Amino acid sequence: MKEFELIKRYFAEQSITRKDVVLGIGDDCALIQPTERQHIAITTDTLVAGVHFPLNTSARSIGHKAVAVSLSDLAAMGAEPAWLSLAITLPEINEHWAADFSAGVFELCEFYNVQLIGGDTTQGPLSVTVTAQGYTPYDKYLTRAGAKAGDWLFVTDDIGDAALALLYIQGSVDIEEVHQANIQTKLDFPKPRVLVGQVLREYASAAIDISDGLAADLGHICSASNVGANLILDNLPLSLAMQESLPLMDAYKLALTGGDDYELLFTVAADNKVAMETALATTGVKITCIGQLDSSHKIKTLLNGESVFIDMQGFEHFTDK
Amino acid sequence: MKEFELIKRYFAEQSITRKDVVLGIGDDCALIQPTERQHIAITTDTLVAGVHFPLNTSARSIGHKAVAVSLSDLAAMGAEPAWLSLAITLPEINEHWAADFSAGVFELCEFYNVQLIGGDTTQGPLSVTVTAQGYTPYDKYLTRAGAKAGDWLFVTDDIGDAALALLYIQGSVDIEEVHQANIQTKLDFPKPRVLVGQVLREYASAAIDISDGLAADLGHICSASNVGANLILDNLPLSLAMQESLPLMDAYKLALTGGDDYELLFTVAADNKVAMETALATTGVKITCIGQLDSSHKIKTLLNGESVFIDMQGFEHFTDK
Fold it and tell me: Across the strands, what pairs with B268?
């Protein structure tokens, strides 16, 4: 597999050199000297071609998305990203593909000061597995399990655009040209909410990133925290593209079930709400209060103040096919 | 992908609970509280069906081998294994497969006190990516780069059996029935030399695990350490299966190029040789001196005291197809 030396060359050219990396790429293992009195957060995610991204997705997007998905998990713990291992399985090597893919990986690494410390390149059907690691302070991190009845429920940015882009690619929905580039970017280049997560360590009671869909991920918080939730559909942050491309009830459904948004869903005790909003203002990321937790152990959806049933089977998530 | 909950259930049943794992499987990330004043060694490897193992390999072997390959990399650094992340891509879920695969994973985890801390299960062509992590003391670890001219070259156990098993499976060689089970076990259930690696931290000048083939991996040590080597073919440790199945020169070739052995290849300064041999005796693992390093920057193969040319293209490694 001599041709795989090609992609290794691209990955040898990274510009990030962290002080806590004793030994980077090139030996049997990387060696890390972790900062003392910190926890290390670790997450692994695989993206499979044709399942987690359409087959014609650009190499730069695949590289970006593979890293973004893992950094998003770190963000949901309030962790500061540090190191990345990257396993790529490829049917064949193409110099342009390798250059574009590594550019997609390194854009995020450089922005977040993350060093690629190793990985593996193998031959086979296209897939990418990233293991990302980062720091959280002792006893100052976010989980899904800390939410309490009465806490407010928030979400970052808009929800549903990535799923809308997939429906458009699949030919299931028409989208005005003015919105097409925007939603494609939301699908192909998701922004991990790393800074928001680190700020939230001080304020939020629970957090998760929206990968399975808002409803399912809210379910994970409710289940881990042993609470229920009232979700106010009227408040769901929908982009203009969502509002103009789908009937409103369909837009709500897609926002609840779509997944792939990689926005943060988090809960805040009433006492911390104003301080959290003030602290997050510095990040420039929009947040929206979309409901409140209760002790019911159920998720209720409300519209115009009244309970409304949403058929969560309405849209199949791309990864479910 | 509700059926993937099945495999998660199997992985939730592990018996290892390490004190340095603050949060295991189940949230967006695992959280580790690493022991202070230790380095963390990290390695990632992917096994692809039909490339790194034959398509009809048992699920238990795939689970074992995926873990063994990564623990072998930790062993080559002299690291003590600690945590594992496991990304599996599967065409479909079958309860027996999930049970057997997880049994293969956990056998090694239990033996080495390694906790599975997370991962991902996705749908697609079968492959497994393991990220394994472990500890080494500060400034007491093995790399490929410490070998010096004059150091002795050693290898653990026998070399070439895994490659011989592949040739047999492919129908390229006949093997007597008495040897078949043994070499199949060497291929399907490689033993990571974890304890040997930890002992060698005190004595060896360089180490690598034999995954690409002895000649290629010796080349990695020579290149990283800026030395050459005289390799004494007469000394190569060959199993009875190897000796009885192949003409001797073919057996040497296969031992040099076969790969997949996951034995340790290491170098020791003359001053440390006896102490190393004494210390390793407690591990019960056979070691063999197969040559000596020099300053030539070349690898020479010797037979009966004379230089002999070995055509390294003689056998294609299974992963090279």
Answer: B152, B204
Pick the CATH number of B152-314 from 2.40.50.1020, 3.90.650.10, 3.40.50.11720, 3.40.50.2300: 3.90.650.10
Rg (CA), chain B: 20
Do B129 and A44 count as a contact with CB atoms less than 8 A apart?
A: yes
CATH numeric code, A152-320: 3.90.650.10
Q: Domain spanning A2-137 has what CATH number?
A: 3.30.1330.10
State the pTM of this model.
Answer: 0.94
Residue, of A26 and B315, whose pLDDT is higher: A26
Do A41 and B34 count as a contact with CB atoms less than 8 A apart? Answer: no
**How does the average pLDDT of chain B come out, rounded?**
93
Distance CA A209, CA A217 (A): 7
From chain B, pick out residues whose CB is under 8 angstroms from the CB of A123: 48, 51, 319
Cα–Cα distance measured from residue B78 to residue B1, given in angstroms and rounded to the nearest whole number: 40
The tens digit of pLDDT for each residue in B10-55 reads: 888 788 999 999 999 989 999 999 998 899 999 999 999 998 999 9
CATH 3.30.1330.10 domain extents, chain A: 2-137
What CA–CA distance (Å, rounded) separates B222 from A148? 60
Gap between the Cα atoms of B150 and B77, Å rounded: 22
Q: Concatenated DSSP letters for B1-61?
A: -TTHHHHHHHHTT-----TTEEE-BTBSSEEE-PPTTEEEEEEEEEEEBTTTB-TT--HHH
CATH 3.90.650.10 domain position(s) in chain B: 152-314
Residue type, B27: D
Which ipTM score applies to this complex?
A: 0.92
Chain A, 54 to 73: residues with Cβ < 8 Å from chain B are 73
